[in-house]
Amino acid sequence: MDTVIELKNVGYSYPLTDNPAIQDMSFSLERGGFYGVVGKNGSGKTTLCALIRGFAPNFYKGTLTGSVLIHGKPTVDYEPGELSLRIGYVFQNPFNQISGVKDTVFEEVAFGLENFGVPVEEIERRVIEIMELTSITALAEKNPFELSGGQQQRLALASIIVLKPDILIIDEPTSQLDPEGTESVFEIIKTMKKEKKTILLVEHKVDLLAEYADVILVLDEGRLVRMGPSDEVLADERLIDYGVQLPQTAQLGNALIRQGLSLERPPVTEEQAVAALRRFVEVR
Ligand SMILES: Nc1ncnc2c1ncn2[C@@H]1O[C@H](COP(=O)(O)OP(=O)(O)O)[C@@H](O)[C@H]1O
Ligand SMILES: [Mg+2]
């Protein structure tokens, strides 16, 4: 095992608040894993992202207890800027990601690379490649602020993955996308996984998490209440208690089980659902 991110008994409170946003949280994430984070609004998902990226407490201040380790070193001990090389963080609101100093989408995607002093020819090559991957090539000459929410989300993703960080923290990247755009974002993230990147994705679309994520973390009131393989966690009706829906496949599976189908566990992926339905038909 190659642990990339580790939380040890982490608690965190924002400045001037009484209730901690994160409480007693411990887990570790392995290199190359695709981790999905679910939980209702205010359960601490964005705060968890900010803790891993080091924005909390380095930038937001507040009070941290326990430790957040990236490659074994506490985030508070990293030099400013050092974590930004290792961790790409796509904000929940893509508007916050746009630099505001560049006039075109092309320049915006190139911006981070310029800051890191990458040679011009390589910048061009990488920007063209990433704009293709994120389907924003046609927008290259547009002003970033003229884009729709969904286009801004793809731009935000592009401007991060172009930097090739080892770790990707992505906070609700599809909230403003249609189903097709959403599927394409998941495909992009899948490409990142093939490159052995460690991915933490906050996402409400459990049907897609079921297809793509390896492990699910469930947050509730700032605590980690469940962590396990997607197949197990997303099939469990207790998720509803935490304000998280089950994938449609699992809902159907649970209904079939109630109708007497003997299934070890409800399906969560499409493939598993088809297999379960075949058995249901055969048994009848
Ligand atoms: N900047 C902030 N200052 C104070 N409290 C905050 C701040 N951001 C979030 N919180 C609080 O922290 C808790 C967790 O919020 P957040 O991490 O944004 O949850 P989620 O992303 O799951 O919706 C909530 O109670 C929220 O009100
Ligand atoms: Mg959030």
Describe the 3D structure.
The structure is a single chain. The protein is α/β, with parallel strands linked by helices. The protein has 2 domains: 3-234, P-loop containing nucleotide triphosphate hydrolases (Rossmann fold, 3-Layer(aba) Sandwich), CATH 3.40.50; 247-284, no CATH class. Helix content is 38%, strand content 22%. The strands form 2 sheets. Strands 6-7-8-3-9-10 form a 6-stranded mixed sheet, sandwiched between helices. Strands 2-1-4-5 form a 4-stranded antiparallel sheet. Helix 4 crosses helix 5 and helix 5 packs across helix 6. The protein binds adenosine-5'-diphosphate (ADP) and magnesium ion.
Architecture blueprint of SSEs:
Elements: E1 3-13, E2 22-30, E3 34-38, H1 45-53, H2 55-58, E4 63-70, E5 73-74, H3 82-86, E6 87-90, H4 105-115, H5 120-133, H6 149-161, E7 167-171, H7 179-194, E8 198-202, H8 206-212, E9 215-220, E10 223-229, H9 230-233, H10 248-258, H11 270-283
Parallel strand pairs: 3-8, 3-9, 6-7, 7-8
Antiparallel strand pairs: 1-2, 1-4, 4-5, 9-10
This protein binds adenosine-5'-diphosphate and magnesium ion.
